[in-house]
Description:
Blueprint lengths: L14 H24 L1 H19 L9 H7 L3 H32 L2 H8 L2 H6 L11 H5 L5 H27 L9 H28 L5 H4 L11 H21 L1 H4 L11 H6 L5
Helix pairs in contact: 1-2, 1-11, 2-11, 3-4, 4-11, 8-9, 9-11
Amino acid sequence: MPPNAVVSSSSSLGLFDTLVPLSSIATVSIVVGYTLPRYEPFGLFLLLWWVLAVFISLNDCLFASQTQWQYRQQSQQQNNNTISDVWGLVVLVGLPMCMWTILLWAWFHGRLRGFLLNMVPLWSMIALHIYRLDGLSIVLPLWKGNVPKLIGFQTIVLDVLMGATAVPLTWMLYTQRTRPFSKRGFKDVLWFWNSLGLYDLCSAYLLLVLNYASVGGSLITEPPFSVLGFHPFPLLILFQVPLAVAIHVLCLTNMDELIEPKSGGGVLPLHVRRLRGMPT
């Protein structure tokens, strides 16, 4: 294939290319729609974060050109490859780190901590992870050999598991029906669920970066996941994944406060009484 051929990145993974933008729009609509009227700076931050991710994704900013992936596969124009790969890795790693740093600063120096712990119900944080059912769309590309095996299997198994289990957990928290779990059992379930979800996202993120940098064994680097630099992958990696990681970290580090009732006074919710070992 000639180096100057133009190859479109659209529909490269079939259904995945449709589900990711749709789930991203749904996620930002829910998150911003809830936070903006209640805590305007945080809502605007999330909206601007999403807009930046969309801009990078739609403009294929992680590559010098739309044919860069061909050069990389054919080992041609190595200098341009190096520049493009370095730029792509800086964006994929640096932008989420920058966003997390801003959130961390706001947590300790602003009203973000009070807003998240007192005004955002835990069930809504868990519900946002339902989007990870997108992992089902990787089955066909994996079967065709278009996705690295280790990345594909982990995405299908862990992402789908997290998305599927987020549904009953959301329902249990929303309705305050946590049986068959009692006392600290449900809290332990939430600890395990968030720990597994954090491992899934961080390890998958690392595998994608290793593949992008052509580092690792054949299960990670073959085939070269060149579409990682094209829409809609940057949208997923730069917005939804960092947001999900932040939610997992928030839940793991503030579990006791998050399970507190959000409204003052009255009887404690059933699941809170069980977690505390109180009579139900």
